Amino acid sequence: MQLREQKNVEKKNLSYLLAEQIGQRILSGEYTAGSILPGEMELTKLFDVSRTAVREAIKILIAKGMLLSRPRVGTHIMPISHWNFLDQDLLRWWITPNNIDEIMTHFQQLRLIIEPQACFHAAINASHNQKQTMSSLIKEMHLLTKQFDPKKWIETDQQLHHTIYQSCGNPFIASFANLFQPVYQHYFEKIISDKAFHLKAHSAIVDAIIHGNSQRALEECKRLLITRE
């Protein structure tokens, strides 16, 4: 990498880290929606960064719907209704030990809307290779029950969810597999302790998908999600 390119990367990383810190202050309410963000000079002193880094960080947050810059007025913190909660960065910044229960409630409600449909369409559209992958992941989960490893279980469970979403044949639904990865990670870490979690239910969903039974796949997924609530 050329020196100039390296410097550009370093600037981008610094701007991102600054955007994260400002974003977290907005999400926590320290910087309140509807108010004016501290000025450029104040932010440079507060975070000990350059004006360029501040400007780039503000651009990042504007793109996420959190800020709106107005000439001669300042940078407004937008109402929460404008924030893009489908943004992976914003999701990561949002989750804290203090609000994780509230976020997981919202997350489960959304899963109940989307995930059964993903299973329904996966039963119709999954390829032979995708079905083989699901079957292999279920076998791996069964093996993990004999010598349980929470970290490996979470990794395998996430791979299974990802495969189902990618198998559904609908690019809008499939995009949620990657979009909500940060929330899935926190969710599974919260519910998994020292034992396999609903392996029978996971197996039933995959069995329905493999056999092309879309309605049963939908119902088994709904049953699993309702049981978890």
Automatic annotation (TrEMBL):
A UniProt-annotated Pfam family: GntR
Keywords recorded for this protein, A-Z: DNA-binding, Pyruvate, Transcription, Transcription regulation
Xref: PROSITE patterns: HTH_GNTR
Keyword Transcription regulation: yes
The keyword Transcription regulation is assigned to this record: yes
Chain ranges of the HTH gntR-type domain: 12-80
InterPro entries: GntR_C (IPR011711), TF_FadR/GntR_C (IPR008920), Tscrpt_reg_HTH_GntR (IPR000524), WH-like_DNA-bd_sf (IPR036388), WH_DNA-bd_sf (IPR036390)
Gene Ontology MF, one: DNA binding
Protein name, as recorded: Pyruvate dehydrogenase complex repressor
Organism: Xenorhabdus beddingii
